[in-house]
Amino acid sequence: MKLYKYFIFLIIILVPCSSLFSTEKNDNKPIKILLIGNSYTLSVAVPFKNIVKQAKKNAIVVDASQGGWSLEQHASNKETLNKLKSNNWDYVTLQEKSTIASRSGYHRMLTSAKKLDSKIKLKGGKTLFLLPWAYRDGDPNFHRDTFYSMLKRVKKNYLVTAKDLKAGIIPVGPAFKKVFETRPDIELLAGDGTHVHVNGGYLAAYVFYAVIFKESPTKIPPGKHSPKDAKFLKRIAHKIVFGKRR
Question: What are the extents of the domains in the chain?
């Protein structure tokens, strides 16, 4: 219950009323966003860049993700560290390997995240954790595991880590859960049950957009790459982040 309250607190802090606060800078400088993770983040990067362009946001989005990598690998990788130093990033998103977030508790994740977070804050940036989706059939390392039970473990470890570092959360996993419960006919995951279908990639991107730009994704005009159920997915992202229907 305490972790759930902290999750709500993070959303309130990160997403204030758009009429009072704006991510757009007064001096017209672009919002600089660096994405760090593995194939999960890679699968969100392209649709996120697409919708940022559709919304005509003045933003630079750079992806430093590597397939299969953990935060521990990123924290000791020269290329990732050089990317962090290369700019004064406004936001840096971090995503841990799902097997670690599901099986190892938060301690291992926290150790690596701390190293990256300290470098992010040194440059004046804000750390945001991509709280991802779970596997369709749960983690095979757990007997009779399910999407919901795996997501519960992953969510807990992300929230504890974010709370310790006073970082923000991009609640993609809870958005997937909401779609599974309300529109199970919409395919969010690819055939392997772990990576995203195009629908899932765009749903994640809409959640990213809502958190980072503090603006409802329902305002984003349709683009040529938008999925068929884009309107519904935008509404789900809005509800998860802002806590009300749109």
Answer: 2-15+28-242
Distance CA 187, CA 185 (A): 6
Q: Output the CATH code of domain 2-15+28-242.
A: 3.40.50.1110
Per-residue pLDDT tens digits for 2-18: 554 445 445 544 444 33
State in Å, rounded, how far the first CA of the chain is from the last one. 26
Determine contact, residues 240/171, Cβ cutoff 8 Å: yes
For residue 40, the SS3 value is helix
Helix (H, G, I), strand (E, B) or coil at 99: helix
**15 with 170: CB under 8 angstroms?**
no
Count of CB atoms within 10 A of residue 240's CB? 24
The predicted structure's pLDDT at residue 7 = 54
Specify the pLDDT at position 222.
83
**Residue 25 contacts by C-beta under 8 Å, 6 or more apart in sequence?**
31, 58
Pairing of strands 31-36, 91-94: parallel
The answer to whether the CB of 224 falls within 8 A of the CB of 202 is no
Per residue in 73-113, pLDDT (tens digit) is 999 999 999 999 999 999 999 999 999 999 987 899 999 99
Structure tokens at 182: 């309300």
Token pair of 88 as six digits: 């004064």
Alpha-carbon span 157 to 106, nearest angstrom: 5
Cα(240)–Cα(162) distance, rounded to whole angstroms? 18
- Give the tokens for residue 114: 């701390």
* Each residue's pLDDT tens digit, 154-210: 999 999 999 999 999 999 999 999 999 999 999 999 999 999 999 999 999 999 999
